[in-house]
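Propose amino acids for all 123 sites.
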């Protein structure tokens, strides 16, 4: 199994920035594509950004140009740098590990392991 712990959430004013972190532990030898999802109040969970085993990134349209996903493979940490935050970015943000090495899409069912989530509030 893989355990994931997010951190870095909090409250920020519109236009501000936050950096989320996701620490992976457990059976990380086969760490695959990893991603960030979010769930806004009253909405379905949606994909934000993903990074595959080779470092190739994919972003949801709303994240392109404002958010940056990265990873430190040696220390098993994934990051999400969020800039120019908007009120509509308020959500619980989750990190996840896919069951594939490469990005196959945003279907939550394609991600096998999930963190507990971290709250981001923009107001």
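Proposal:
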């Amino acid at each position: 199994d893989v355990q994931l712990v997010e951190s870095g959430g909090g409250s920020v004013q519109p236009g501000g920035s936050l950096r989320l972190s996701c620490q992976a532990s457990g059976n990380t030898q086969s760490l695959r594509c990893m991603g960030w999802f979010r769930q806004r109040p009253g909405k379905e969970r949606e994909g934000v950004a993903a990074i595959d085993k080779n470092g190739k990134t994919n972003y949801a349209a709303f994240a392109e140009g404002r958010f940056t996903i990265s990873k430190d493979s040696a220390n098993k940490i994934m990051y999400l740098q969020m800039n120019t935050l908007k009120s509509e970015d308020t959500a619980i943000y989750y990190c996840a590990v896919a069951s594939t090495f490469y990005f196959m899409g945003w279907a939550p069912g394609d991600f096998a392991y999930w963190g507990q989530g971290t709250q981001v509030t923009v107001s």
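The chain has no helices and eleven strands. The mean pLDDT is 94.
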